[in-house]
């Protein structure tokens, strides 16, 4: 099957390498604004040329951003071409439109690389949701923040130094906001919750606290109780209500999340009958993410002609029934409280009016019973 590749950055170039020498899939065209003499396929700056080409069966979008990516994918599907994207921002912003259009056009829409990097998370999650009722999903979904928190925990590095180190290694962008404030993890949580629960939730409705307020002192204080900070995205369902949030979480040192270091990711779902399953691996990088794009293309070539779920229902986030143990730091003092997530985030926002660097963290596992 012939593929048109939109974008030739890190993910695009590594995906291209993964297809070289294959006989079942071939990158026949690359959309690029500049010449690429190193490529043997067609290189064009005219997307309409790709849409008009009847030999192109799959359009792979790895260019990022909302436009022109959204317009390109819509045009491709209307032309009867299957679509694979690694663009989580696009999938969150236009989830309902894209899923509905794919169904209307009878083409496949896949986005496994948009959450979990090289982990087959979305495909595994959607398969599990067809077998059993998913109760909750959560995980470390951002490699940059996990690298920074690992450095702060293992080496005593301060936040600013950990960020500079992550930027020097290429893990964090010059503007790290999407990573350190939890926005990247939140977009991945939107896709995870949608597939787990058959819903469509809005990114902006999910409260989000990143790691920028975590200090070396916070790390040390947690260490005295053998607790480790991780940035966790979590969604859970109670009856017909869905709760979802992103915030730092304290895990006992024995927990699998505590042992997930560097840029690694770990994601978990809990099902009503067959319990808990976890998936871990590289959450970012050219080859891991490119491999997820390739897996989607192979699924399409093997006959998959749909999205991960058949239907979805718009759903509002409701945190009132989601109880947990929470740690606060405000005005230099630490204290804990057991309450709903709704109350926890409301209280945190009140503290931030007096202390812009206030901290909120959920306490997980057995430690919650001991501290709350």
Helical/strand content category: alpha/beta
- The number of helical segments is 14
Percent of residues in helices comes to 25-40%
As laid out across the biggest beta sheet, the strand order is 12-11-7-9-10-16-14-15
How many strands, what sense, and barrel or not for the largest sheet? 8 strands, mixed
Question: What is the approximate shape?
Answer: globular
Alpha-carbon distance between the termini? 57 Å
Q: Which blocks of ≥5 consecutive residues have pLDDT under 50?
A: none
What is the mean pLDDT?
95
**Number of strand elements:** 16
> What is the percentage of strand-forming residues?
25-35%
Query: Radius of gyration, Cα only, in angstroms?
Result: 21 Å
SSE string: EHEEHEHEHHEHEHHHHEHEEEEHEEEHEH
Description:
It is a single chain. By secondary structure, the protein is of the alpha/beta class. It is 38% helix and 26% strand. The protein contains 14 helices and 16 strands. The strands form three sheets. Strands 12-11-7-9-10-16-14-15 form an eight-stranded mixed beta sheet, sandwiched between helices. It has a six-stranded parallel beta sheet with strand order 3-2-1-4-5-6, with helices on both faces. A two-stranded parallel ribbon has the order 8-13. Helix 3 runs parallel beside helix 5, helix 6 packs parallel to helix 10 and helix 7 crosses helix 8. The chain starts with a strand and ends with a helix. 45% of the residues are buried.
